[in-house]
Design brief:
The protein is an alpha+beta fold. The protein is built from ten helices and four strands. It folds into two domains: about 110 residues, no CATH class; about 80 residues, 2-Layer Sandwich (Nonspecific Lipid-transfer Protein, Chain A), CATH 3.30.1050. Helices cover about 55% and strands about 10% of the residues. A four-stranded mixed β-sheet has the order 2-1-3-4. Helix 1 packs parallel to helix 7. The two termini are about 25 Å apart. It comes from Nonomuraea phyllanthi.
Length: about 210
Amino acid sequence: MTHARDERSALCDLFDRLGPDAPTLCTGWSTYDLAAHLVLRERRPDAMPGIAVKALAGHTASVQNALKARHPYPELVGLVRRPGGVYGLLPFLDDAVNTMEFFVHHEDVRRAQPGWSPRELPADLERIIWKRVASGARLMLRKAPVGVVLRRSGGGVALGGPRGGARVEVTGPAAELLMFCFGRQRHARVELTGDPEAAERLRGAPLGM
């Protein structure tokens, strides 16, 4: 098993346990909506551009709703559980592309439920996550209103946001920094230091890919 497969399996187990109407951190989406999104992402390449391009978002939303109409929730979860499209044919690509995707969405469901707590992750997964955070910080933080210093607990620094002006330091484990950079700032267990107003602006900024 790869980390991508582990996160996929754990997320689907959670989907099964919570049912179709549980909340997620994806604004306005239930677990049913998130499952449909993940199926669309792997099995409907025609609708994928609308995930990132607003002008095409209408088609993507239409396809996602059609998937929900066509498939009962357990069927959609079953489709998520089995890598689809090119990821089903090339396991190495599934691991390269989907480890972060499924980790974040697994946490989107976990952290939307009461009483959640951070997981203790395998050391190699923490290293992989930090590598992705460090290499992608500039992209993920491109909309940050202030300069950002990401400081990994245990060692490691990455920079993002504007190069001049106010700067906020964000400190925490690699997994928490990833959630922060993916736009889940208010659900990431991190410490922010710097000007309080700048820190609050950063907490509300539209971060992510």
